[in-house]
Amino acid sequence: xxxxxVRRVLWxxxxxxxxxxxxxxxxxxxxxxxxxxxARYPTLRASRLYQMVRERGYLGSPHHFRHMVARWRPRPxxxxxxxxxxxxAEQAQTDWAHFGKLAIGRAQRPLMAxxxxxxxxxxxxxxxx
Length: 129
Description:
Layout: H1 3-12, H2 31-40, H3 46-55, H4 62-69, E1 92-104, E2 107-118, E3 124-128
Antiparallel strand pairs: 1-2, 2-3
């Protein structure tokens, strides 16, 4: 029988589930060193950290080390806005603005403005029409 079927039947009959303990890892002894190193050097590469732990006696593979170290790597703080980094003449923002009506003779004409701002220099261009 499949192990999930056995678990389900045991659970339905009221038998408490037995939890297996977490498996130990070769890396467990080096976790405090890794966390301390990341606290001092948050951008340290996993390959350099692997060399440092290897010098202290770690015998595991580099692939497994990188996978496990990703858990303890400090994450950058999330930003609530988008930071634009543009080159000159790469991006501009445009819009139209309405300024009411303008009387020309007996006619009422809308007064509009075309506005363009260059993202790199923040140079402003306005033309009324």
